[in-house]
Amino acid sequence: MDKQNMDDIAKNYHVCRKFESLKCFQIEAHVYSHSNFIQIKLFKTSSFKNSLLSLYNVIMFGIICLVCNFIHPMSLQLKILLVFTLTSILTLFILNFIIIEESLEIIRSIKGVNYYTKNMLGKETSKFIGSTNFVINEAITMFRVISYLAVLACESNQLTSSKQVNLIFTKMLPRNDCLEFIYTHIHHFLNQN
User: 31 Cβ partners below 8 Å, 6+ apart?
Assistant: First the structure.
């Protein structure tokens, strides 16, 4: 093998590691690196969300049954249909807000970041950030310090210039060790010749 092929093999790799989120569930980080792009995906892997969703369904079913028992003129079949319909609608509403995957892609020639989220219903949203300046920063909340990954984007015109901070992986809230793992791979990719 010649030197060019060896360099291409060294640049193309896939790494997978498991971490814990600040929200106490397991996440899996996948890094797909190629000579022209890098993609980083975070997945929820624990079954905690499924047990929480089942508990939610049981509680909602019980509350709706109690409400329907107070409506006397309704037949039993109509009460069952009403309970099933309301529970299904509320479950779909909640599933729309549960994010199960977050990912980002950096393409070397574009000089920007594509950030994607995917919810439990399969709906994907994306956002393009026109910068590749990554930082790991900390935020202080009431009782704890949270580390986060951000992309700094500079916007300037003739009159003013401002910096915009775009937070990445805000739904999964990975811990600092996961953020350092991600940042290391991004930094390595951006500094390759």
Answer: 13, 14, 15, 16, 38, 39, 40, 182, 185
